[in-house]
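Dear colleague,

Thank you for sharing your sequence with our group. We've completed the structure prediction you requested, and as agreed, I am returning the results in plain text so they can be pasted directly into your records. Please verify that the sequence below matches your submission; if there's any discrepancy, let me know and we will rerun it promptly.
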Amino acid sequence: MYVPFARKYRPRKFSELVGQEVASRVLLNAVRLGKLAHAYIFAGPRGTGKTTTARILTRAINCLRPVDGEPCGECENCIAIDKGIFPDLIEIDAASNRGIDDIRSLRDAVSYTPIKGKYKVYILDEAHMLTKEAFNALLKTLEEPPPRTVFILCTTEYEKIIPTIISRCQRIIFSKLKEEDIVKYLRFICEQEHLQCEERALYTIARISDGGMRDAVSLLDQTATFGEGQVKEQIIEEFLGILSQEKVRDFIKLLLSGDTDNALKFLRDIRDKGYNLSVFWDSVEEEVRNLIIYKSLKEPEKVIKVEPFHKEISANLNALLYLEKLINTARIESRAMDLFKACEIAIVKSAIIKDILPIEGLIKALKENKEVGDNPQEKQAIQEQPKEDRKEDLWQILQSNLKRIDFERLKRLPWEEKEGRIYIKVGEKELKSLEIEKLKAKFPFLEFIVEEEQKKEELPESVKNIKTLFNAKIISYERDKGKDNPS
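Please find the predicted structure tokens below.
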């Protein structure tokens, strides 16, 4: 009978756990030093090894021949646990056994001593699904459990576990696995199974699995079956309907170069071929975000994995930020309209990206009447200018590129200049008449602060009567100890 990769290559010792060094070290030391807690909470994203670790811990504390805290994997108890027939291991799906009656049955069974092993272990999977009443029924048992009994609550939503339960358990947090760790383990499986694999295909699987080893191994299994023993990027595209990272980056290059025609054609092609548009758009957003981080930091290699793609993109930070905003807007608008249509609109709006220069480039272009790139010497020269000069340069850019009426309208509004940007305060009236989004796209140094209009205080009836009687104009109005004093 065929055994799926996810079961066949499931870790059976603490040393075999991938990417969860903290969890394995804490539990291994607890077993070795005899400091085992009576209750644990294993919390983290799906597929990161919570239930697997719970079973390894069960083996370790019930193994007949443990080796320095690790289970031997060969004794009668280890084999029984591995096969799922060990009588002292009780696994409960809290999603389908979440009521108070289920927990009462568990509480009654806890009082019995282990049948075959040293400890009786209860694993509650998806523990956050228990009802409030069920949690309360479990409290006393967790606080004072019978001897030689261990509870392990596994959850993907730690914040839903009630505080009184959390305070009675030791907490171990499982994090998402790094792409490199997942790829290394997938490569190991390919070697064991004699599969032909492409490195880029393994990275694509790791990226799709979003830090979950179980999902990654399952995808590898399905891809190998579909590809008849081959794990290639083209096979993954056909099987999962997900574009490779290389093609996602080609699409981003089209957007940044302002090639709207080919970008729209690219989008229509992936829709017609049945690719997952939502996953594709998420991949585009992730790549653009990495580009923004790369352009923003002095040492980006400490934060992200720097690749040749990041270095070959010449677009400035303002252009990338505008593109990222378009991508986010398309995602938000897709809730009200079809995602494909929202993406089309975003692509059309991206046509102006190629014309967006950094602030320093705009100032230099104004002074020398020519386009200027990201020259470090030019940036330094601009930064050394007095602030007042820089302020005038920014307003000159606006005056040279706006209609006179629009420029005068902006100039009349309250504004201030900080660190090479102009902050303009606008009220609700100006908000309706000014095309703020277009102005921000064309002039990245503009920032608009929307102020709420203050409601005029309603005049008391006595003041209204005086105003009507004398046909007067209210210049100022104050309240003094409950008396109305118009002037």
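Summary note from our side: The longest strand covers residues 149-155.

Kind regards,
the structure core
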